[in-house]
């Protein structure tokens, strides 16, 4: 094979790779649009009337996850199954956002932490990397850290809306989450930086709870904890 023929072959390989990446980008753009629509929907819970509509907003968000499943099924077909991490960067960010959205919906519904396996089921992908297109552990953890920031914001807005018990429940949840992350030996620099932000979320929520305490509203909140969430 001549040098010219070698480089023609190399160009063919480059072109094929670029075509694959372009097909992946198209699906990822659709996923990002769906994620934006879900985020816009769920942001409504931060407004006063939104607290009354949480079940309805969660139901609508779950309907969007049907679209996500279809889009992810399409994404799986765009590259060889054994090359997940070769193209992972293309969908890493949107997958982390989808994890956050799934975790936020589950928290709003039951005030519990969604598992990696449950998120994978919601998204219609695998939890085990050996089984193909899957939810990477670090993507799951990144999404959960985004949830912590969102709940810190929700704690503040709950007080504004007159819901004084919710910040106390959020505080308990976030402290348990923080304790869980302390058990991990994080090597990923990006994830480690995200985790460093968790302490600020914990502090922000503690300030909300302290403010309720000095205003005497924590007693009212404690009295209402047994009521409807």
UniProtKB/TrEMBL annotation:
Gene3D superfamilies: Translin, domain 1, Translin, domain 2. GO terms for biological process: RNA metabolic process. GO terms for cellular component: cytoplasm; nucleus. It comes from the Eukaryota. It is found in: Cytoplasm; Nucleus. InterPro entries: Translin (IPR033956), Translin_C (IPR016069), Translin_fam (IPR002848), Translin_N (IPR016068), Translin_sf (IPR036081). Keywords: Cytoplasm, DNA-binding, Endonuclease, Hydrolase, Magnesium, Metal-binding, Nuclease, Nucleus, RNA-binding. Mg(2+) binds at residue 150. It holds the Pfam family Translin. GO terms for molecular function: endonuclease activity; hydrolase activity; metal ion binding; RNA binding; sequence-specific DNA binding; single-stranded DNA binding. PANTHER family: TRANSLIN AND TRANSLIN ASSOCIATED PROTEIN X. Ring-shaped heterooctamer of six TSN and two TSNAX subunits, DNA/RNA binding occurs inside the ring. Exhibits both single-stranded and double-stranded endoribonuclease activity. May act as an activator of RNA-induced silencing complex (RISC) by facilitating endonucleolytic cleavage of the siRNA passenger strand. DNA-binding protein that specifically recognizes consensus sequences at the breakpoint junctions in chromosomal translocations, mostly involving immunoglobulin (Ig)/T-cell receptor gene segments. Seems to recognize single-stranded DNA ends generated by staggered breaks occurring at recombination hot spots. This is Translin.
């Amino acid at each position: 094979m001549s040098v010219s023929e070698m480089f023609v072959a190399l160009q063919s390989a480059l072109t094929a790779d670029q075509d694959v990446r372009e097909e992946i980008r198209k699906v990822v753009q659709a996923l990002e649009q769906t994620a934006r629509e879900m985020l816009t929907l769920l942001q409504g819970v931060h407004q006063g009337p939104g607290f009354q509509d949480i079940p309805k907003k969660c139901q609508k968000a779950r309907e969007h996850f049907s679209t996500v499943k279809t889009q992810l099924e399409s994404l799986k077909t765009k590259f060889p199954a054994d090359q997940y991490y070769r193209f992972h960067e293309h969908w890493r960010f949107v997958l982390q956002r989808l994890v956050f959205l799934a975790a936020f919906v589950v928290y709003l519904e039951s005030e519990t932490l969604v598992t990696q396996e449950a998120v994978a089921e919601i998204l219609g992908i695998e939890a085990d990397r050996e089984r193909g297109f899957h939810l990477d552990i670090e993507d799951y953890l990144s999404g959960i850290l985004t949830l912590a920031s969102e709940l810190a914001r929700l704690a503040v807005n709950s007080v504004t809306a007159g819901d004084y018990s919710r910040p106390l429940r959020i505080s308990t949840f976030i402290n348990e989450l923080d304790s869980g992350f302390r058990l991990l030996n994080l090597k990923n620099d990006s994830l480690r930086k995200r985790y460093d932000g968790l302490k600020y979320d914990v502090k922000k929520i503690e300030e909300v709870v302290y403010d309720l305490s000095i205003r005497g509203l924590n007693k009212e909140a404690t009295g209402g904890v047994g009521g409807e969430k």
